[in-house]
Amino acid sequence: MGTPKKKKKNQTPETQFHSDLNLCSKNKDLHGAISLYKSAIANNTRLNHHNLNALLYLCSNSVTDPSLKALALENGFHIFDQMSSIGIVPNEATLTAVARLAAAKGDGDYAFGLVKRMGEYNALPRLRTYDPALYCFCEKLEAEKAYEVEEHMCSVGVTAEEPELAALLKVSSETGREERVYQYLHKLRSLVRVVSEATAKIIEDWFKGKKGCEVGEVNSEVGKIEEAVSRNGGGWHGLGWIGKGDWVVNRTRIGLSGHCCCCGEKLFCVDIDDNETERFAKSMASLAMEREVMSNFSEFQDWLEKHGDYEAIVDGANVGLYQQNFADGGFSVSQLDAVVKELYNRSGKKWPLVILHNKRSRALLENASYRKLVDEWVDKGILYTTPNGSNDDWYWLYATVKLKCLLVTNDEMRDHIFELLGSSFFLKWKERHQVKYTFAKGTLQLQMPPLYSSVIQESEKGTWHVPIADDCTEESEKKWLCITRSSEVLQNKETFQKSNNLSCDDKLLRSCTSTTSHDNMDSLQTCDNENVAVTGKRKERS
């Protein structure tokens, strides 16, 4: 049994204060902390930056308790003034705590002013530094001031997350700023993808409100909208509200074919947009030529310009070496050949492009058992061999991005090469283009990209589908908001029936048309995807 620690003798007042303050902080004892502070001031105990920040933090966290709010506000500002009087320069943590105190008493201007003056203290703001002013302005419906806060955030490279975007969406909705509502829906689509239940409620309230029903254009240029959807990678056009009349808002699920079980709309598997694709390809080529022999990669780029009709690229080494880590394992030509033939059959008789390092292709050609097959691949334009000293990862990745096609590989693309490219849209790109595979008892199984992306989607007709976060692991069971004009519901449902040769369940049809924008939230019904059988196979293309 251990010997109890003895209390240190002859502690300095500063050491004793620090120890006692830590105990108050641990126990969230504001009264005790303030008593310690006042005693320290009376006794001229030296207080450092850490001590005062700890007191400010405790004060700012206590304002949510009505019984402590007045004490926290009064002493919090006094502590901040004390810091200034003894020449302690506030840091980001200091200013964030004081901003929270200011917001607690409804002074968003003071909170935002602290953020704008941070440069004077050589401090950089974080998202938490902006939150007090932003939420204060949103709660007081001071929309223009809230927008100013967001603009300031963007100017210093601080990115809003779902809580901030939801607050901005709500204040925009409640003050009738339809253009801002549209803007923040798209920011949620881009930055958040799947929304919380609280954010879903804000979205529902907008579409069910009077102002939401007044927005939109009847005569929209269909060709222009379709072009925008294609240019953006599918799933949104960004050209503004489309259609007129009341909105129908429902909870729904997405069927196995990617169709909404309420309105029948087919969702997209969303890609990165054309501009992102072009930047991605250029940055990749630039990095590759820094690390490869420039003439070799330039030669590949020129070759690809002349032979760019592929719909799938195969990481040959990854497929050939799959599950070959056993005693007699080596490079499996049969696995690679199975992938090549499967892609050929799926694509309507179009051969894929296999990228393989020159060292491996030479070894295959030297083996009499494989020479004929490899010669066939070369003759049919299936095989491209990368030169000695090269990293074939650059080649197959660049080809996939440049041709906007599928990539067959189990490579998770997590190493330093892919870190150089950044992750802002890389995950979205992988979801849309990567095809994984298995060989179960020697039988090939390709895992194609999903039929649709779990992300907020805006259709060419102006309908919206919003995925809601929950604990469900099955995609077909996840909850979505289906938001469409009442005039579109029957038309979409009839089109869905005809294209799938189905008869829609009457109960489902009623549930999908029963809740318009003026109905009570409690009457909103849930569409069940089990009421509709969906068929059809996704076209395998890039």
Automatic annotation (TrEMBL):
Cofactor entry: Mg(2+)
EC number: 3.1.26.5
PROP1-like PPR domain segment(s): 5-211
One MF annotation (Gene Ontology) recorded for this entry: metal ion binding
Source domain of life: Eukaryota
Pfam families in the record: PPR_long, PRORP
Reactions that this protein is recorded to catalyse: Endonucleolytic cleavage of RNA, removing 5'-extranucleotides from tRNA precursor
Sorted UniProt keywords: Hydrolase, Magnesium, Manganese, Metal-binding, Nuclease, Repeat, tRNA processing, Zinc
GO biological process, one term: tRNA 5'-leader removal
Record carries keyword Nucleotide-binding: no
Domain PRORP: 255-482
Family per record: Belongs to the PPR family. P subfamily.
Name of protein: ribonuclease P
Organism: Cannabis sativa (Hemp)
